[in-house]
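Example 3.2
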Amino acid sequence: MNLQLAKSYQAEAAIPAYRLVKFGSADDRVVPGTASTDLLIGVTTDIGAAIGERCDVQFAEIAMVEAGAAITRGTMITSDAVGRAVAAAPAAGVNSRVVGFALESATAAGDVIRFMQSIGQIQG
């Protein structure tokens, strides 16, 4: 594993595969994203983790993510309440953390799509 692109963390909650994550209570721990305002850091790989297990988090390049709703390719994405990708659409004056943009469209929640990681923030 190239540590510049992915790192192993301890899961503080159950984290399914292909979910967006944020830091947990310590530097070496992660939890699923729960809102578009979370400080998201990356996405889990194809293997999920139970509480206390290790999980790999990818930070850069093209990755896979589970959609939480329909997404059109090219759309900037963020986290829903359970770490799935949704279109970033913050209300006026609200900041939203984005993890990148969809390279493929999702037709419904549960679809796993490719996205280009580019973490940043947008304001509505």
